Amino acid sequence: MDVAHCYLDGNADAVEFCSHDSNRDVLAASTYTLHEGDQPSRYGSISLFNIDVETSHFDMVYSEETCGIFDIKWNPPAGHVNLFLAQADADGYLRIKTLEGGCDAAQGVHLKEMTSEKISNYMCLYLDWNPSATSITVGLSDGSVSIVSLLESKLEIQEEWKAHDFELWTTCFDIHQPNLVYTGSDDCKFSCWDLRDGPSKRVFQNSKAHKMGVCCIQKSPHDPNSLLTGSYDEFLRVWDVRSILKPINEISISLGGGVWRVKHHPFVPGLVLAACMHNGFAIVSIKGDKAEVLETYKKHDSLAYGADWHKGEASQIGGRTKPLVATCSFYDKLVRLWRPENDIML
To answer: Residue 174 sits in a domain of what CATH number?
Structure first.
């Protein structure tokens, strides 16, 4: 059920609804475009949209040109008044911007750069905030991971180490045990690190489960024992991490395309939104030892990269509960808003 769409000036690779209640109708979208040649250049943009959930109005209220962006994330609320948007850039910088103004164009909503830090001479590919919004983990294109603190509007690299042999596509904090950081890479390895023990000591590394590169890792906000991984090998895997030294792969489901991003629904346990690259987007239900695809969305004509759930309450449409979803695709430069056709809020 399509709600609205918008074409961007560059290749769309990430969409993120604001996680703060006061601005949950603000959607950010980023782009990354490579100009090849003797001197390749990477450029991008970041845009803000204001969404009227009731009328389905979808208005771009701000846009700026940037370096090529690989990932964006709003800071978790964590008692913060300020709204921060972090971006991982192709020039090796981590940038933090604040959302200023109101929620519509008349009030001049915009992003203002608060601080930035050159993390590496390599590209920043992915980022994740810790639950208290005081630290960020960044994956780099040389296989390194960097832990960066944000204190008093200043970024400072706390630790950095070579975690993998190839591009580090994903890294995240364990939201239930923030001293743990997970990483996944093009080397097909899925690893965990304990920040209390020093950067050179791994808690575990799994090099057999994924047949191709690991693209995404997400800890469940509803179940402290459950974690998801997605891979180029097209499988979404559910892990039980109660035995942290040797987590158990409980469930695997093929989604028919490389699983580039996964997002847990903010309120409904076991409901997952996945961006499946060459096979569009999928909504997956995970219950007990069973995973099934509830719905697919294939109205994008290019690589399915970015996806997110709206953080507000789902709407009742035709007697059915319909959450709002934002997705984006790469080469067709398209952002779409849509609602599932089926009643999935079970």
So the answer is: 2.130.10.10
The tally of domains found in the chain comes to 1
Supply 238's token pair: 């559910």
CA nearest to 71, candidates 223, 275, 222: 275
Q: Which residues pair with 171 in a beta bridge?
A: 183
Contact 49, 56 (CB under 8 A): no
- The encoded tokens of residue 181 equal 């950081």
* 124 part of a folded domain: yes
Select the more confidently predicted residue: 183 or 54: 183
Q: CA-to-CA distance for 83 and 20, rounded, in angstroms?
A: 8
DSSP state of 223: -
Spatial contact of 135 and 149, defined as CB atoms under 8 Å apart:
yes
**Does residue 294 lie within any of the structural domains?**
no
Domain that holds residue 126: 7-257
Instruction: Give the chain's count of helices (H) and strands (E).
Output: 0, 30
Does any domain span residue 106?
Answer: yes
Determine the distance from the C-alpha atom of residue 112 to the mean position of all C-alpha atoms in its chain, rounded to a whole number: 21
Whether the full predicted model's pTM is greater than 0.85, yes or no, is yes
Lowest-confidence pick of 147-151, 184-188, 195-199, 223-227: 195-199
Predicted confidence (pLDDT) at residue 103 exceeds the cutoff of 70: no
pLDDT tens for residues 246-266?
A: 888 889 999 999 999 999 999
Nearest Cα neighbor of 77 from 135, 39, 26, 22 is 22
Question: Measuring CA to CA, how many Å separate 327 from each of 61, 179, 233, 263, 335?
Answer: 18, 31, 21, 11, 6
Domain annotation covers residue 280? no
One-letter amino acid of 86: A
- HSE-CB at 218 with a 13 A cutoff on CA atoms is 24
